[in-house]
Amino acid sequence: MRSAKDATLLAVTGPRTTGGRSSFAMAGPTMLNSLPKCARSTETLAAFRKQLKTHLFRLCYMP
Predict the structure, then answer these.
(1) How many domains does the chain have?
(2) pTM (whole model) above 0.85
């Protein structure tokens, strides 16, 4: 399900249990929403992978 405000964001509902926060159904959309918009809005898998790699590199090696 997509967010009404931004079509690139996934709507994440709250977990019903305390263990639900660590489930893949909760963690996957949360992680995808934390990516920059340029990575979320790519058209192809190859472009997404390139943007993801760039984003992760910047997180690890840029101050």
Answers:
(1) 1
(2) no
